[in-house]
Design goal:
single chain; 3-stranded antiparallel sheet; Tetrahydropterin Synthase, Chain A; mainly alpha; 10 helices; about 70% helix
Length: about 525
């Protein structure tokens, strides 16, 4: 029982102790400071005792009845500023601003604030207002309106710097000072802004006018594009309408056009039939008339050419025989002369040898040698002259035989030459048609046949002209041709003259192609 009483007493004592501890233990909030008075204390960080103790952010034991505890708020406070000021220019202004402040966090600031505002914390804003109002008036009095407007930061910095010492004594610190507005009862600031406002208004009006002009131009361009689109639409509509009208007219004309086309096709077919019939008649004429005539002409031409070739071969054989005989005779004469000269020379030498012993050997030998040389030269000259005369006579006979053959077979010779050159003649005649871009023929296919027939008959004209030219060259009174031929026969041995009808070897030359002209001078 005694134990129970003791336990109960102990429990009561514990409860009492806990209750007393709770009553004596005080804890400072983060945004407040506990100011404990009632005993002399020395706060760390201070040079002298304050007579009270400051506790922040922790708990402390307070003896009830012996010590008193008060709280000092460390929260931010705000003070509005509305200060009547006069500038350096004497212009009255009203400055509106705000000051945000609080009690300093250090013990000195808390102690200074506790002494001044512990029981009058609500009056803290008024005190701050009065401090800043005085300094603000002083600073504004040294500035112009233009400086205040251009550099408000300067005004704010000077005000904070000027009030810093007083705020420190009050235990307060300024977190922010802002100048919201500068009121101008006299309208000075408005007048300052008037030129700029006018310039801005002017620029605004100019910009508006430019915008209106651009808008008007854009509208006009839009109207022009609309008109152009309308025009293009009307043009397209007109084109479509014209195509529809054209199609309708073509549909109306389809019947007559088809009938005309059918008639045209009939005419074309009839024309084709007529052309085929004309071609058939022409082919029939070729088979019945022209082919036999061409065959007969070819037969006559072939026989004439064979006869001409026979005569020419005979003449050439006779000329060669005469030439060979003359050459043989010349060789014989030359050989005989050479033999006689050698014999004479031998006799002279023998005679010189025979008479050398008599004392006249040298003179007789010289005389005999001279006579022998003279005789030999004379014999050699006679032999060469005889050989040249024989060769000239042979060539003259060959030329005469060829001229006789040409006179008797003029048509055959000319026809042969024309036949050899006929491809070149036809090619030269066809080249003239190569430069023709457009040719109009009359009388249809018959006109073309007549044209080519006339072109081909030009060969006959050339044949007649060639025949006349050869006859004129072989006329008896033409001494211009006979004379050179005779002279050629005399001098051919020396190799100094050759007639146009002969070659240097004495053989007849081929007839050369002579350009023929008509009376008008056209080839």
């Amino acid at each position: 029982m005694v134990i129970g009483v003791a336990a109960g007493a102990a429990l009561v004592a514990v409860i009492v102790l806990i209750t007393l501890f709770k009553l004596c233990w005080r804890v400072a909030e983060p945004n407040e400071a506990l100011v404990i008075s009632g005993s002399k204390h020395r706060t760390e960080g201070l040079e002298e005792g304050l007579g009270f103790r400051i506790v922040t952010g922790r708990g402390t034991l307070v003896l009830p009845g012996l010590q008193a505890v008060r709280k000092l708020s460390l929260d931010l406070n705000e003070a509005d500023l509305l200060v009547d000021c006069v500038t350096k220019q004497g212009i009255p202004l009203k400055v509106r601003g705000v000051v945000i402040f609080k009690v300093g966090d250090d013990l000195v600031s808390i102690a200074n604030a506790a002494r001044r505002f512990l029981d009058q914390q609500k009056m803290m804003g008024d005190r701050v207002h009065n401090v800043f109002a005085g300094h603000l008036r002083s600073i504004v009095g040294g500035l112009t309106v233009e400086e205040m407007i251009r550099d408000r930061e300067k005004l704010t910095a000077q005000t904070r710097s000027a009030s810093g010492t007083e705020m420190e004594k009050l235990g307060l610190i300024v977190d922010s000072l802002q100048i919201h507005e500068i009121e101008d009862p006299t309208g000075y600031i408005q007048n300052l802004a008037a030129p700029h406002a006018a310039a801005v208004q002017r620029d605004a009006r100019i910009a508006q006018a430019e915008a209106d002009r651009l808008a008007t131009e854009a509208e006009q361009q839009a109207y022009a594009l609309m008109a152009e689109a309308a025009r293009d639409s009307e043009i397209l509509k007109a084109g479509y309408q014209a195509e529809r009208d054209k199609a309708a007219a073509a549909a109306k004309q389809a019947g007559p056009l088809a009938e005309a086309a059918a008639r045209q096709e009939v005419v074309v077919q009839e024309t084709r039939v007529a052309e085929l019939e004309a071609h058939r008649r022409e082919m029939q004429l070729q088979a019945d008339v022209r082919k036999p005539a061409d065959a007969k002409a070819y037969e006559k031409r072939t026989l004439a050419e064979a006869e001409r070739d026979a005569r020419i071969s005979a003449a050439q054989a006779n000329a060669q025989e005469t030439e060979l005989a003359a050459a043989a005779e010349a060789t014989r004469v030359k050989t005989a002369a050479s033999a006689e000269a050698e014999a004479t020379k031998a006799r002279g030498l023998a005679k010189a040898d025979a008479t050398r012993a008599t004392g006249q050997a040298e003179a007789a030998a010289a005389q005999a040698h001279g006579l022998a040389a003279a005789e030999a030269a004379k014999a050699k000259g006679l032999a060469e002259a005889e050989a040249a005369r024989a060769k000239g006579l042979a060539e003259a006979d060959a030329i005469k035989a060829r001229a006789t053959a040409l006179a008797e077979n003029q048509d055959a010779v000319v026809a042969q030459q024309l036949a050899e050159k006929w491809p070149e003649i036809v090619k030269a005649g066809a080249a003239a048609f190569g430069n023709v871009d457009h040719m109009v023929l009359l009388n249809g296919a018959d006109g073309m046949a007549d044209m080519f027939a006339k072109a081909l008959t030009m060969g006959g004209t050339g044949l007649g002209l060639a025949r006349q030219l050869i006859a004129a060259m072989n006329a008896p009174g033409d001494t211009a041709a006979a004379g050179p031929a005779k002279d050629a026969g005399k001098t051919a041995g020396a190799g100094t003259a050759v007639t146009p009808a002969t070659r240097p070897n004495g053989r007849p030359a081929r007839a050369e192609r002579v350009p023929l002209q008509d009376d008008a001078g056209t080839v």
